[in-house]
Amino acid sequence: MPDPMIWKQRIEVLRAFNYSETTQAGVLRERLLHSSYSLTESRIILEVSRRSRLTATDLSRNMGLDPGYLSRLLSRLESGGVIERSRSESDGRSRVLRLTGDGARIAELLNRRVDDDVAEYLAGFSDRDQARLMDAIRTIEQINDSRAQNVPRGRYFLREAEPSDAERISRSYEALFEQTFGPMEEGFLEALTDTTSQLFDSGGQAPGRCWIAEMNGECAGSLILEPLDEGRMHIKLFMVESKRRGLGIGGSLLDEAVRYARNSGCGELLLWSVRNQRRLQNLLSGRGFKLLDRPNVSYYGIRFDVERWMLPLERKS
Fold it and tell me: N or C, which end of the chain has less CB nearby within 10 Å?
């Protein structure tokens, strides 16, 4: 048996891999939950528990389910008191999916059963083979991510942000944050708004730099680069819309930031991220960023487990 922390991390890696990459292929499907709900119903419950402001359209796209079939499953879960559908505050035409109190308890039980099943699966391998399995999963993810190289650049384009973009950057980041962590605290929202609004001075010039990736007239991603102190810059509000991931947008935004920082004579480029974001980890490590530490931080009453990355740059003489 490996170190408990390593064991826990391997369970998380395998769960994430099975959930996001291979559920359609049926890996571990026959042994996953052992609950009174079908596998698809269980996946719906877990997906709703993981994200806020989720609509049936989002769920259909994320899970690859036929909308009609999904609608029947949602009706069954709603009549069973597991989920509820309420009108979106931002779009009255949409209904947001939420777990009821009973649904939240069911999701917690399902999560424990998934952990137990994955732990049982892993226990059938030696420690050496478990480590090889983790490496294989990372290789599969890297291969899947490489499809971005085959996507024509014409499908999206990068441009520097303008003062009129401040509000749309805030809205996009807020939506992505709430999908991941839940509703944003008021103080956090004010800080976000201040960051984007103060990016531009009265003359419309940015003290740092902000790039936007546009696709079909929409903001598909953005990144802000600002001076931190003498010789150092840091990346803030780096995001790619969930539905646009895998197209190379994140890598293009990051490359622009690195290029600008290097040409500006920056000695170090820093970035803070939530832990275990493997796509981002691959982007950063592939460009020479080094993982410095993994601290716990508290921001406006919300605790985050984060990673601090640094890219050393040669200063221009």
Answer: C
* Fold designation for 154-312: Aminopeptidase (3.40.630)
pLDDT digits (tens, 9 = 90+) for 178-190: 766 666 677 777 7
Q: What is the DSSP string of 159-202?
A: EE--GGGHHHHHHHHHHHHHHHH-SPPHHHHHHHHHHHHTTS-T
Phi-psi region at 172: left, alpha or beta (left = phi > 0; alpha = psi -120 to 50):
alpha
Say whether pLDDT at 205 is over 60: no
Angle between helices 4-20 and 127-145 (to 10 degrees): 40
DSSP annotation string for 194-257: HHHHTTS-TTS--SSEEEEEEETTEEEEEEEEEEEETTEEEEEEEEE-GGGTTSSHHHHHHHHH
The mean-pLDDT minimum among 23-37, 191-205, 278-292 falls in: 23-37
- Direct distance between the N- and C-terminal alpha carbons of the chain, in angstroms, rounded to an integer: 53
Q: Say which CATH class 4-148 falls into.
A: mainly alpha
Give the domain ranges of the chain.
Answer: 4-148, 154-312
Give me the helices (H) in 2-126, please: 4-20, 39-50, 56-63, 67-79, 101-123
Two structure tokens written together for 306: 């984060």
pTM above 0.70, yes or no: no
- SS3 state at 90: coil
Q: At what angle do helices 39-50 and 101-123 cross, to 10 degrees?
A: 110
Give the whole-angstrom CA distance, residue 86 versus residue 90: 12
